[in-house]
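Intended use. Records like the one below are meant for learning the mapping from a protein sequence to its folded structure. Do not use them to infer anything beyond what is encoded.
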Amino acid sequence: MILVSSCLAGLEVRYNGTHSLDHTIRKLLEEKQAVAVCPELLGGFSTPREPAEIVGGNGEDVLDGKAAVVEKSGSNVTELYIKGAYATLQKAKEVNATAVVLKEYSPSCGSSMIYNGEFTGKTTIGNGVTTALLRRNGIQVLSEEQISDYIKTMPPQAQLQKD
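Structure written out for the chain above:
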């Protein structure tokens, strides 16, 4: 089973009430090979919500207490991001996830790039809080940009059916 970001599945759960539909991920859900999850909603946020970025580091640093997740208005929301990360880890364990596909650039889900914490639209190398926690627990995390390559490594019976 693959765990995937709800926004990539087409659910309107992003901070601004939109989605980031990825058709490959939608197909995985339709074929019952994936389960959707949103770390921010599991952490207690609603949609829409204020944009947030990691200030002072990356997801690893947040987990280590060296950085914070802060909303654009300045409110520290670190604890909710950590709560959502742990809830996502629990879900990954419940479904025996072989991989988790999360939305790049998110302060929760970024797997290689996140916003730089200045709210200027600039990105930096780093991972989100949920990605950091999942990887610390030995779970493979991919971005939506890597899902096609991952599917090619799946056993033939598990690969997506051709239309």
